[in-house]
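User: quick one - fold this with thiamine diphosphate bound?
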Amino acid sequence: MSKTVGDFFWQRLYDWGVRRVFGYPGDGINGLLGALNRFGTEKIAFIQVRHEEMAAFMASAHAKFTGELGVCIATSGPGASHLITGLYDARLDHQPVLAIAGQQARAAIGGHYQQEVDLQAMFKDVAGAFVQQASTPPQVRHLVDRAVRIAIAERRVTALIFPNDLQDEAHEEPPRKHGTVHSGIGYSAPRVVPYEADLHRAAAVLNAGKRVAILAGAGALGATDELMAIADRLQAGLAKALLGKAAVPDDIQWVTGSIGLLGTRPSWDMMMECDTLLMIGSGFPYSEFLPKEGQARGVQIDIAPEMLSLRYPMEVNLTGDSAETLRALLPLLEQKTDRNWRDGIEKGVRDWWEVLEARAMHAASPVNPQRVVWELSPRLPDRAIVTSDSGSCANWYARDLRLRRGMMGSLSGGLASMGAAVPYAIAAKFAHPDRPVIALVGDGAMQMNNMAELITVAKYWRQWTSPHWVCCVFNNEDLNQVTWEQRIQEGDPKFEATQVIPDVPYHRFAELIGLRGIFVDDPDKLATAWEEALSSDRPVVLEVKTDPNVPPMPPHITLEQMKKFTSNLLSPDPEEGSVLLGAAREVLSSVLPGRKH
Ligand SMILES: Cc1ncc(C[n+]2csc(CCOP(=O)(O)OP(=O)(O)O)c2C)c(N)n1
Ligand SMILES: [Mg+2]
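Assistant: Sure. Structure tokens for the protein plus thiamine diphosphate:
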């Protein structure tokens, strides 16, 4: 058999360095899959998911946890459309992902044929950087080369669509004649550093500041040493956007932790009081958590110029790689000696950890969800990777989890989609099979799709060098994050028709499919449960019966929100008034001056 378009395709992806693809089969891609079988899954592994959206989440997470291109593949029509949410996750978090989709045969396209969807139009927004449908064999070489190069170089999603009959055609190199394209492989990221003059302008602003606040995001994940050196030089405090949580360890005295609705009090205080803001690699969206315009002088560093001066009008905008730019900036910065500002931040951070401990230890019915994460932190094994779903557990991930140096963590940040934690944790484990991986997931997100994806864990875990993979389910029979949004943002009572979800024995489902299940409804058993889960001889679902009446509140709440919240206590909420009042007391006390919890 001569080499087909499919055979050429996998060889080309292999030459680009692709070693794993996440996907699900269908007749729209059978030509490609047959070719992958011939090519050899020992060279490019095919990871079979339960749903194509999960394949796209895994591709996004692969990119996040390795820095490499993530690749996912789906059949025509419904397979391709299933990819979309996962691709938007990658798009919004600036991850390089290539989506491959099948299409009907070329002669049928435009014929309202079965499973025929206008895929170019469908992918156009999410994969706008490069989306192409192949129509002839000599075109495939440059389509692959461009789709990969653009995805990596621009950190964007790209998409390639292959009509199924084309996949089995004989491969042809582009002939040497007019009207053909002759591309090649290879990409090296450039060293991107601002001009000296601009670094000097930035240094002048930072040197003049007396109260410097640093905000680090996902773009600063590779700049830990540089961030610490700059923060010390400037005697600054450092807050982290959600995707930048692992940029600097949480056990440093002047790290104020997360910022924003899921953030901390010391981050809020620092931003409200600083006179200078240094933002690095962050697109953190909520400007109200940053200094008021005019309050602080701003310097921003970002590799993507379109992210500069987007959330706060900066005085100096530096386009550059975060680590390289910070390194170039450091010698221009004077060592600050006044310790007042930093001392204040460190005290705020110390007090805050006490507040969090008290909140976590607060009695709840039956288990306080904050305590689940609080108990995990000291038991996190070195080099652990933690993922979180969207839901109230993202609050505890952001605030209570203490990541140490060498750990990683991520979630669906920009898109904040439910259903990402388990696929993220699976991709993390394939990328780093020797590292312990922990997914934090709400019960709603389990029911949505994470539960089915446990079957993927059951299928593959024996291939992993260590079996340490834990999915922690917060079973509160509620779509709790949104329940609290209804109460606080709208001033409405909990709408039971939309919010209450069925009780499902997640730990028993795990056992049914050959994983280990642990169930906890007593807070004092959490510590042992985590220890057992993290040393188990197989992946574990740790199901905790948590209290939906513990509010996942922002670090401060506004007077207006407080008014809505308290008036809501008088309106007919299905939860008992006393429980809500207890919760309210916890929230309100944390915003009253002079109170710890
Ligand atoms: C795909 C998707 N649908 C809906 C939402 C809105 N949403 C955000 S959090 C949440 C509730 C999640 O419930 P659960 O997983 O049980 O976690 P909990 O908040 O109860 O801890 C919902 C519905 C979303 N972010 N993503
Ligand atoms: Mg829930």
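One thing worth noting: Residues 442-444, 476, 478-480 surround magnesium ion (ligand 2) (CB under 6 Å).
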